[in-house]
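Q: Could you fold this chain for me?
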Amino acid sequence: MLTFELEQLEHKIKDTKIEEDKLHLIDFLNLPSKRLRPKLIFLILKMLNLEIKKEHINLAYAVEILHSATLIHDDIIDDASLRRGKITTVKEFGAKSAVLGGDYLLSVALFELSKLNNQKIIEIFSKNTQKMIESEITQLFERGKIPTLDEYLEKNINKTALLFLSGVQSALLISNYEEHKKEIEDFTLSFGLAFQILNDLKSNEDKENGIYTLKDILCKTNNISDCDIIVKDFVDELIKKTNKNLDFTDNVYKKELCEILYKL
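A: Sure. Below is the predicted structure, expressed as structure tokens.
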């Protein structure tokens, strides 16, 4: 469904130029990945019957590079040993080198965004990246404390969903699209939130690091025997809400977007 667009993206990632790549960043960028953020951009554009331009490919590339930078920094904070089945940059080269590696990828992403020549796009990424980092700082200082449900949801919107939103908002700006903008933005935030909740539930490392998931929060106030059912009902309802936020009945690309969540 996205073969051509994803091939173009992969070629651009493989062609990333890094002088004296001592930290093996090119290898890191080319590790197997879902490319979920670029897929969301491309599928929404196709759903709206909008042309996918070269600028959209370059935007998707910048989003993926920015996401990769955050992963390197996350691994430093979590002292993680593996990422996508490979030893992490921090374990292979140490924290000081890993910080520089993540910073370097961030600079690559920012340069690519600047080439889009759109001040609004720069503002979107600057504002939302700031919120992402603020959320990570809050999470770091709140380790060991079980948050309220509202605190947990807000953290995941800021930490994860806003990068999804930045890509989609910027793609619509490139296309000068306004008609269903609010519905698409709501869908994107719900999509990013659902993704992070599902991702948290599959991870055992977060609790070891004092970071609690939806299951921990809901089990705190309900009988343990009922907890799995409560969590499943909550996630199912969130996915249904995500689908309802975007009413493109029988659109094949909308169906693919929904399938992505169910397959996580």
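A (continued): DSSP finds 13 helices and two strands in the chain.
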